[in-house]
Amino acid sequence: MKRRDFLHDLSHLGAASLFASDLAFGSSLYNSNSYLNNTLSSGKVLVLVKLNGGNDGINTVVPLNQMSNLNNARPHVVLPDSGIINLGEKDLGLHPELTGFKSLFDEKRLKIIQNVGYETPDFSHFRSMDIWESASDYNKFVTSGWMGRFIENQHTEYPQSYPNSQYPDPLTVELGSPSLLLTGKNSFTSFIARNPVDFREIITEFDNVYDTSSNRGTKLDYIQLVGKQSNLYGARVKEAYESGICNFDFNPSDLGFQFEKVTKLISGGLNTRIFLVELGGFDTHDTQVDQSDHTKGAHSGLLKILNDAVLTFMQNMDDIGRSDDLLVMTYSEFGRTIASNGSLGTDHGTAAPLFVFGNKVDSEILGNNPVIPSNVQWQDNLATEFDFRQVYSSIMNQWLTVNSTTEEDVLFKKFDQLPIIQGKYIDTDGDGVSNDRDLCNATPLGAMVNTDGCEIFSLPPDNYSIQTNGVSCSGKTNGVISISVSNTEHVYNLSIPESESSYTLNAENEHQLVIEELEIGTYTLNFTIEGQEGYLQTFEIGIIEPPALSAKAYVNKKSKTIQMSVKGSDLYYAEVNGERRSYKLDNFTLQLRPGMNTIKISTPQDCQGVHVEQVFISEQVKHYPNPVGSDLNIVIPGEDKETTVSIYNRSGSLIKRYQEQIPFSRIVTINTTGFRTDIYVVKVNGQTVEQTFKMIKR
User: Fold this and answer.
1) pTM score above 0.85
2) How far is CA 634 from the centre of its chain?
3) Residues 580-600: pLDDT tens digits?
4) Counting CB atoms within 10 angstroms of each CB, which of 295, 396, 469, 500 has the fewest?
């Protein structure tokens, strides 16, 4: 088995998505300017809708100027003129169930691209879908998907260094069956979230080291990696889903449920940028329409599901203010034949229309109306006007914002673009300034630019290392901020308006600074650089009053230890019977001595309070014989010099109490001759002893 086939199958096996925080590496390992950056609370979202089976494009987007020939070519499935929704443009209409599509078209939020396909079409479902999802030529067999390659191109260390601080959420989420689309050359790049609320940890935490020079070691290492990622991503997806809202209800259907999950994940704060949903059943060889009413039937039902799900999704995105960030695209492996068959259906065809939804789409209908011959033969099919990879290329360049090298890596070659996004929203160089306002439309990725899109001097934010204890008690000035810079070629000036203070970082202080005696409050750190006019880097640092110390104790009298679980600080002081130690862990174990122990837990911040525990640890007393005839022998270890022995009857009444000196042998003998036959409770007390046992007097 090839490595990529193994990875593809393995990822599917565990609903695998993707690990532990200790696998996050430095920023140099991932692209901070990627379209997929998910530390931002908003950003462009691409939702791909797969229509499995081959959608009948002719009955979906109807060329009204071809109705006469359509009635001749497909009498068994043709739609009646009266039921078709007239778009009012280009002699085109929509299926009667696409009322929501019509409203989105009227709002200029739907783009229709006609006659999309590829050269030398393949009529196999599996092969044709592979071609669409791999973006390969018809005669090339590729085992990775174009979107998987796009992700790996943007994130060369994926999956080994993910999730991390900049990409805590899955890069893509897949709601249907695992697809070739999101399979990269090296790994499976999506999180499969069929049921986000039912996440369960699929692997316990471990960190084995495998010999990756061997095939077996490589596979075991990858299994461990995927398992850890699944735990972290799964917990994050569940959290977002449970926090999400959906104010417009979806009609019950599998696609509706998938879109509902996407809605809740986005509204719940999941910053994944690419989602894949799917709807099957479009292989309508028979009963595509109802014999008595061609506006009804299997195809009609599927289009209604699609219509309702997309419309409700757009309404929900409007409701939460995210529809400007949204682009939705449909695709299917092929269209259907021009001619209908004798089973009220159609067979595998070629080109078909493709839909793109979004507030920023160029809503002009693209392409010519299909031409229907007057004398259609069974083998006749629609001509392809646009290669499907032109759509991919256009979305990559106009929505995902990539460069030509990326396009060739992902699609293997360049394709002529189509106008899918309105020009005022296209930002080719990804600098945040749209092309129509950008005077410098080739700035390097990640460069700082002015309002004209031209590069200005900048330094990455991680040039500055700012650390703080972050806390100070009210009325005190023990807050601290420590600063250093990695680029030491410049002289930095720092101003803090809240304290009316200014500082310099230069060679004299080795570009390092410690600011002490800070009160509670928010401090603005404004960095400028000598000789770089207009440069300003600002950070806000908070000094707050720390939370109250929280501590829980778990005593193990057998081992004479107490385990402390504490919260509230990075440093703790633990004092046991007057002896003090410091700990930087949230859990630590303290050794106790026999007798009364006093434990005090505190932190460097006295306003957090002190936690006090008192624990008595008894020496382990032994006694014999039992049952007792005359003398009861009690062995008392330790160093106590005297002890008190109290004997109670079974009802709890004191029978007799003895105050005894403990001899060198450590054995105290109690004469029980005067006790009647019964069961008694014996309590032994001393400075380091506190123990109770039962005595049977015979």
Assistant:
1) no
2) 64
3) 999 999 999 999 999 999 999
4) 500
